[in-house]
TrEMBL record:
GO terms for biological process: protein secretion by the type II secretion system. Keywords: Cell inner membrane, Cell membrane, Membrane, Methylation, Transmembrane, Transmembrane helix. This is Type II secretion system protein H. Belongs to the GSP H family.
Length: 154
């Protein structure tokens, strides 16, 4: 008479193999989640810049992006002539912006950067246990207003 089903030994071996696979995958999964959070925040920062530039062109007005604000770390897009707030963005939680301190970036009516030189921001991840070569990013704003993203070193 043949038996159907699994023996206790087969079940135990299956559970051990499954536990080993989960143990190998868990660190990679947490690294992937951290990388996704950092990438999402980087895209949010680039979105802030693009929003400010688009508002300047569409409204035919000079627009200013300011932040991080001292009160709560948020960023805001303001109409330059009367400081009317057009939009407020949440604070960056994964990154700190270098140079430190409050920044003010102006875009003119043609979406160009109002500055004497190209502006570069380095976004540095706050968690020092994460390999910096993986997460640090640099955002450059050309005089034309074009935004470029690239990986930055330590």
């Amino acid at each position: 008479m043949s038996q159907k089903g699994f023996t206790l030994i087969e079940l135990m071996i299956t559970l051990v193999v499954l536990a080993v696979l989960i143990g190998l995958a868990a660190p990679n999964l947490s690294q992937l989640l951290r990388d996704n959070r950092a990438t999402a925040e980087l895209n949010t920062f680039a979105g802030m810049l693009n929003y400010a530039r688009r508002e300047a062109v569409q409204g035919a007005q000079t627009v200013r992006l300011e932040g991080p604000l001292v009160a709560d770390g948020s960023w805001q897009v303001l109409r330059d002539r009367d400081s009317l707030e057009l939009r407020r963005f949440a604070p960056l939680s994964s990154f700190v912006v270098d140079p430190a301190g409050q920044q003010s970036i102006l875009f003119d009516v043609q979406g160009r950067l109002v500055s004497a030189a190209k502006v570069t921001f380095d976004l540095v991840v706050k968690d020092s246990s994460i390999a910096c070569t993986v997460f640090n990013r640099s955002i450059s704003i050309e005089l034309s207003g074009a935004i470029s993203l690239k990986k930055a070193g330590c």
